[in-house]
Write a structure and sequence with these properties.
A seven-stranded mixed sheet has the order 1-2-3-4-5-6-7. The chain has one domain: Ribonuclease Z/Hydroxyacylglutathione hydrolase-like (Metallo-beta-lactamase, Chain A, 4-Layer Sandwich), CATH 3.60.15.10. The chain is globular and about 55 Å long. Helix 4 packs antiparallel against helix 5. It is 34% helix and 26% strand. The protein contains seven helices and twelve strands. The protein is α/β, with parallel strands linked by helices.
Length: 270
């Protein structure tokens, strides 16, 4: 199975987005193409899908100079092993990877096998919130707190009116709810919706506009209510699938159940 690519072109840069197939949780990697070099945002879940990203990057015939990992979750981190380029992350994210990355990798390797590394790559260079200019293009680094996960990186490109929000937003894909930060997540969605960026690049699924924030708010409201009333993992899963029948990311739904129902017995799904 192969992922899909789309491209958004602007006079000062191009944004190439890779979406993994369902087997790869619909996770995205974004290539920021400047006039002289390439940055990649997030590394994929499995090594084969990460290699698809590196092969495409090579076809652009510009040096790849940075790989950013926005947060420590396995679907954005573990493919980093195939990238021969410095790995950048916020200090908060780097600390989380150092503390939990190998455990996360080991758990996923045990489930999936050799398409997942048995340890997580460490961050080479730490970044902080702020701005820089690359080839005349302004880049804004923002820290996202208490949304899908406690700390994550958001990258804004004001010249293109675009913002790479990653797992703040999922598009037509079930999100990971395991950290239960519903209130903080909703607050972050509303705050980002008010920012002056009209193109939103999510962590799972296709890029879109401001409507993606509203769709996420709708999902979170339903999911929180379903979680409060569900008797067990099976009923919660059923509620989500029935309410959002066209959504992908079923593997994410199954992955999160052990975090949401820690005392519940494991169940098998067809």
């Amino acid at each position: 199975m192969q992922g899909t690519w789309s491209v958004i072109r602007h006079k000062s840069l191009s944004l190439h987005t890779y979406i993994a197939p369902e087997e790869g949780w619909l996770v995205t990697s974004h290539i920021i193409e400047f006039s002289s070099q390439l940055f990649i945002v997030d590394a994929q879940y499995t090594l084969p899908f990460a290699r698809e990203v590196t092969h495409y990057a090579e076809s652009l015939e510009k040096p790849l100079t940075r790989l950013f990992v926005t947060h420590y979750h396995p679907d954005h981190l573990l493919g980093a092993a195939v990238f021969d380029v410095p790995l950048y992350a916020l200090s908060f994210v780097a600390d989380k990877i150092a503390a939990a990355g190998d455990r996360v990798a080991s758990e996923e390797h045990e489930k999936v096998g050799n398409d997942i590394p048995d340890h997580a790559r460490r961050v080479d260079r730490r970044i902080e919130e702020g701005e820089e200019i690359i080839d005349g293009v302004r880049i804004v680094y923002r820290r996202l707190c208490s949304a899908e996960t406690e700390d994550a990186l958001v990258i804004a490109l004001p010249d293109a009116s675009a913002i790479i929000v990653q797992d703040l937003v999922y598009n037509q894909s079930h999100p990971f709810l395991g950290e239960r930060a519903f209130d903080g997540w909703r607050t972050a969605l509303r705050e980002h919706r008010a920012l002056p960026y009209t193109t939103v690049l999510p962590g799972h699924g296709k890029s879109g506009g401001l409507e993606l924030y509203d769709h996420m708010l709708e999902y979170l409201d339903f999911a929180e209510s379903a979680l409060e009333t569900a008797a067990d993992t099976a009923s919660f899963r059923r509620k989500l699938v029935e309410r959002f029948p066209d959504y992908g990311g079923i593997k994410v739904v199954d992955h999160q159940l052990r975090f949401l129902f820690r005392q519940a017995p494991a169940i098998k799904y067809a």
